[in-house]
Amino acid sequence: MTGAPARKPPRGGPRRPQQARSRRTRKALVEAAGALFEERGYDETTTAEIARRAGVAVGTVYGYFPDKRAILMEILHDTVAQIADLVLERLEPERWRDADPRRSLRDLIHTLFTTRRLRPGLQRIVWERFFKDDQVREALEAIEAPIFLAVKNLVLHLEEWGVGGVRDPDSAAFVIHTSVEWTASRLMLGGADEAEVEAAVETTTDMIAGLILA
Amino acid sequence: MTGAPARKPPRGGPRRPQQARSRRTRKALVEAAGALFEERGYDETTTAEIARRAGVAVGTVYGYFPDKRAILMEILHDTVAQIADLVLERLEPERWRDADPRRSLRDLIHTLFTTRRLRPGLQRIVWERFFKDDQVREALEAIEAPIFLAVKNLVLHLEEWGVGGVRDPDSAAFVIHTSVEWTASRLMLGGADEAEVEAAVETTTDMIAGLILA
Amino acid sequence: MTGAPARKPPRGGPRRPQQARSRRTRKALVEAAGALFEERGYDETTTAEIARRAGVAVGTVYGYFPDKRAILMEILHDTVAQIADLVLERLEPERWRDADPRRSLRDLIHTLFTTRRLRPGLQRIVWERFFKDDQVREALEAIEAPIFLAVKNLVLHLEEWGVGGVRDPDSAAFVIHTSVEWTASRLMLGGADEAEVEAAVETTTDMIAGLILA
Amino acid sequence: MTGAPARKPPRGGPRRPQQARSRRTRKALVEAAGALFEERGYDETTTAEIARRAGVAVGTVYGYFPDKRAILMEILHDTVAQIADLVLERLEPERWRDADPRRSLRDLIHTLFTTRRLRPGLQRIVWERFFKDDQVREALEAIEAPIFLAVKNLVLHLEEWGVGGVRDPDSAAFVIHTSVEWTASRLMLGGADEAEVEAAVETTTDMIAGLILA
DNA sequence: GATGAATGAGTCTTCATTCAT
DNA sequence: CATGAATGAAGACTCATTCAT
Predict the structure, then answer these.
(1) Residues A5, A11, A12, A18: is their CA dihedral positive or negative?
(2) Which of B38, B108, B130, C190 has a CA 20 to 30 Å removed from the CA of C62?
(3) In this complex, which of A128, A178, A179 lies closest to B131 when CB atoms are compared?
(4) DSSP-assigned states of every residue in B85-109
(5) Cβ neighbours of D67 (radius 10 Å)
């Protein structure tokens, strides 16, 4: 006999099926809440609705999250982090090194605008709670920090390459990102038409270029 | 024509004392609500508190306003309009004609930043409700419209005077104002220190100058 | 003309009818809650039931009391104070001066026992919450204080009159009242039969007599 | 008959290891619950906490006890019985036969007071539930019965020895024990200082001595 | 037997708005 | 017009107990 009773890990199969179920429930909960927050908003969504949509009982929600706000925080974090990643990509100096800076900048701005189309309802919630909910503000600031750093870093590289530069890189990073972020939000989360958006991308590119290029 | 319909011609005494009282009550209500919204926030203020602070009964509130939101709308409108006026002043072409454009610009930006210190609690409410309450959005947009126009007009003047110009004046007006407004809000309504603010004013001035000057 | 329009106080009639209504509602609330607490117990009574029994909406309850516990505190206070008054009467030295001390004592003990028949359900709630709810404990202690004082005072009088006396009047007051109170509670709030109660009154009288008389 | 049904004769090793484990789990559960009830109180302790503290799953609890209350009953029984044993010792006539009755009595009272220091949290639960939970009341009464009997028996011995006696030994037993028990509880489970306790012990001794001695 | 995910009835409390006086 | 008592729908959260794995 070759041996041991082939028990427990049958071959990479899912161990501890309970955990699998648990993960599935959690996911269902996050998805249900995400969809509802997106559709209706945070205050307008009840914990009972989240449970129903996830196909579980109310009590189950509280087995996974301490309270309603914790669900929001998780979803907000994921959403915002996902957006931030897309932006961070466009900020890598390598992408700019041998390219036309104006083109790269426009590309960056364009990305900053289009990412606002991701989960707009949740992004609205971010702004809605930004000044009244410290947790939301802190979470957003934590996610923005690396972006500010990347912008600053990029500006320093541009200076080094002789294609631009600013007086105060920290301040520039903050002002640039904040400006674009909000211009994009107002246009994309409001209901702006395509022409307006196009024009804004162009104008914004000009504006930022005026600050950091040449 | 000899005149107005002489309704209830009171002899001597103050005309329509009721209206005077009424106006006083209304004012008390608006002031009470304004102070409470500023201190606590909109959702955190109850109509009962507003009435108590104004020294009237709850029911009386509904004799002057259809609902709680209407009080907010009035206050928000007044506050935002007041701020807009301060900004509009700085946008008058006369002020720019014979002055150093860079200086005038810096002055404008500075004004845009410092006006955020007016009734910050109410301004927070604006952003909190901007995307979730169409009435708030529309009211704000109505008030911003003349500003956009003034910015556009100014840019056109600058072009005429040969000190600047942009490709798309409408878009520029929107982008400029929106950018500065939000950068200022985040800094002033959050708790930024003086140095950060100073730096941001400088950087922002550089940025806008890059777009519209020279 | 004799004068002023006979308005407002028509002649001792009820002024401010609103306050009358308010008082009525409050009373209905207290009575409803009292009856329910008595019948079912505190935890077993819901605020909705109280409102329904009082014939008002749930919200009305909170117009008169900050929370459910406040209703209990008021009722408990009233009930216990009422009982305390009955006991205090029997403790007045005048009642003892020219009477047979043994008889007066028996009378006192008897009163302490029979008062336990008043609102037994509420008295149960007192003991149920005594050690877990500081407010209840404090309220009870506040009401007991004058009783302790009266007992002490009585003992001092007895000593003066040469019919008794104890080593430590404060301690005696506490021990006497506490002992009788609990013996009575256990018998009357449990379901003791008449004979047991009679015997206990007699025995308790002997016991206290042994301590404070002759 | 040759004997016992040789069910599953285990060779050598420890018999029914399951039962050993089972007993260990049960004990862990009782200890966990006991500690938590003592610390927080009954209502404030959840079954989930008990399970966690015992190191088992929630469901497991229900394999050993039909419900939460059953755990309490077992713990209460053990605790109260343990206290009762300490008291019963001091009530054995042998201890009193050749000793100074006053001394023995004081010793007994002292014991009745100090035993209230054992598991005070659980004793609080007894009083909290005494009138609302028939099972608790019955359990306590069952445990008190032998004490009442022992007190009665002691009183009869004292009478026989010519050092005391009462009219109604049954009633006396109940009154004595109940009085001391509650005086002690209020002092020891509340937060009385040492001096108060000492005085109460002395006074109580005087009081009981007045009833049963001489 | 053990596990722990799931259940869901049940609670208190809030507050914008109405309306009889 | 003012008053303020009354309304009642709504919502977040708890926890003893069950049961599929």
Answers:
(1) negative
(2) B38
(3) A128
(4) HHHHHHT-HHHHHTS-HHHHHHHHH
(5) 11
pLDDT value of residue A3: 40
Residues A185-196: pLDDT tens digits? 999 998 899 999
Which residue do the tokens 């909910």 mark? Answer: A133
Coil/strand/helix, residue B213: strand
Residue written as tokens 């220190």? Answer: B193
* Strand E within 7 A of D64 CB: yes
Q: What is the pLDDT of residues A152-167, one digit of tens each?
A: 999 999 999 988 889 9
Which of A123, A127, A203 is best to mutate for the B interface (most B CBs within 10 A)?
A: A203
Integer distance in angstroms from the first to the last C-alpha of chain C?
Answer: 78
Sign of CA dihedral A142, A108, B112, B35: negative
Q: Alpha helix (H) ranges present in A65-100?
A: 68-90, 93-97
| D172 neighbors D155 (Cβ within 8 angstroms) | yes
| Residues from C in contact with D at Cβ < 8 Å | 41, 124, 127-132, 137, 166-168, 170-172, 174-176, 178-183, 186, 189-190, 196, 199-200, 202-204, 206-211
Closest to B127 (Cβ–Cβ): which among A131, A178, A202?
A: A131
Domains and CATH numbers, chain A: 14-66 (1.10.10.60), 72-212 (1.10.357.10)
Q: Stated in angstroms, how far is D49 CA from E4 C1'?
A: 13
With a cut of 50, which residues of chain B have pLDDT below it? 1-6, 8-9, 12-14
Task: Give the alpha-carbon dihedral of C94, C99, C103, C109, to 10 degrees.
Answer: 10
What span, in angstroms and rounded, lies between the C-alpha atoms of B70 and B37?
13
Q: Which residues contact A177 (CB under 8 A, 6 or more apart)?
A: A144, A147, A148, A151
Q: Are B121 and B58 in contact, with CB atoms under 8 Å apart?
A: no
Higher confidence at residue A4 or residue B122? B122
Say what the pTM is: 0.87
Q: In chain E, which nucleotides are within 7 Å of a protein Cβ?
A: 1-21
Q: Rounded distance, CA B116 to CA B184, Å? A: 7
pLDDT of residue C22: 85
Closest residue by Cα to residue D178 from C184, C117, C114, C199:
C184
What's the pLDDT at A24? 92
Report the DSSP beta bridge partners of residue A164.
A213
Residues paired with residue B213 on neighbouring β-strands, in sequence order: B164
